[in-house]
Design brief:
The chain starts with 7 loop residues before the first strand and ends in a 15-residue tail after the last helix. The chain is built from seven helices and twelve strands. It is α+β, with helices and mostly antiparallel strands. Strands 1-2-10-7-12-5-4-3 form an eight-stranded mixed β-sheet. The chain has a single domain, classed as Jelly Rolls (Sandwich).
């Protein structure tokens, strides 16, 4: 039997917060965060903005299409017929993307997510016995806005197929009205629902997080499943990696019992490899093992 319910972690906890976050990254790879510092009104405003973007005409939306895979506007296709998305690849300067759609940049929401990511990274470092900022200003972050066009025919099918994220962590504002996120339990291999909890954000550990932790963190495989014919929205910040250096496990995580598992890797290069090899899950990591 799979375990029931992912952890819910309070970011206002004073004692042992870092250790609790590290434990959740290792044992679950997916958990919910309460008291994250983003006000409910701002979250509701951003969801309304997301809905309005998808209501734009196809002609306007396609003005943001990018030749690079996974960037700009992502239309519905035969592989993902119920999914539609927008990706702002450099959240530090979303102006051009927003100008093309004639909407405001909503920098307050992006700043609030980045502030939370910064706090989360610092607490991970503390819980690992390390110091400093993990996700500093030099880290690349991608904002993804998603819409799932669920209908009676989509019930019992995947809105997003099973995958792990290519990021270090993904911070997700999911839909308060429509569940669907499911996690593969690390222990049993069974699917566990990650149902909505009011006022929370979801954190997923991705492949880069597993590389940095020298295999300690669980890069959670997950999917979005359709249970009812209702439109579902979600907004995700992918915290990928630094733009000026490669990711590798700190020396504290490497010893005779825990040899280095992965070569240093550029986060953007890793994402390109995932797209070019069409690997949705952890399989791409094998290409970067120290012993191929």
């Amino acid at each position: 039997m799979g375990r029931e319910g992912v952890p819910v972690i309070d970011m206002q906890k004073v004692e042992g917060l870092g250790e609790e976050l590290v434990k959740a990254c290792e044992e679950w790879g997916c958990f919910r965060i309460v008291n994250h510092g983003i006000c409910p009104d701002l979250m509701a405003e951003m969801k309304a903005v997301a809905a309005s973007l998808f209501d734009l005409s196809e002609e306007i939306k396609r003005q943001t299409v990018d030749t690079r895979p996974g960037k700009g506007y992502i239309g519905r296709n035969t592989v993902s017929p119920f999914f539609e998305g927008f990706s702002i690849d450099d959240v530090s300067s979303p102006g051009e993307f927003c100008d093309r759609l004639d909407v405001s940049s909503h920098q307050r929401y992006i700043k609030a997510l980045r502030d939370f990511a910064g706090l989360f990274g610092r607490k991970l470092m503390e819980g690992s016995g390390l110091g400093g900022d993990l996700f500093d200003d030099g880290w690349c972050c991608q904002l993804r806005i998603n819409k799932y066009h669920y209908c009676p025919e989509s019930v019992g099918l995947a809105g997003a197929h099973l995958h792990s994220d290519s990021s270090f962590v993904t911070i997700l504002q999911d839909d308060e009205n429509v569940n669907g996120l499911e996690l593969v339990d690390k222990l049993s291999g069974e699917f566990i629902p990650v149902d909505y909890v009011p006022g929370t954000l979801v954190v997923n550990v991705g492949d880069i997080g597993k590389i940095w932790s020298n295999g300690r963190y669980y890069n959670a495989k997950h999917r979005i499943w359709c249970f009812e014919p209702k439109t579902r929205y979600s907004i995700a910040l992918f915290v990928s990696g630094p733009t000026d250096k490669k990711i590798e496990a700190p020396s504290k995580f490497v010893d005779s019992e825990h040899p280095r598992l992965y070569v240093p890797i550029d986060a953007e290069e890793y994402r390109r490899v995932r797209y070019s090899t069409e690997t949705r899950t952890v399989d791409a990591l094998d290409l970067f093992r120290t012993t191929a």
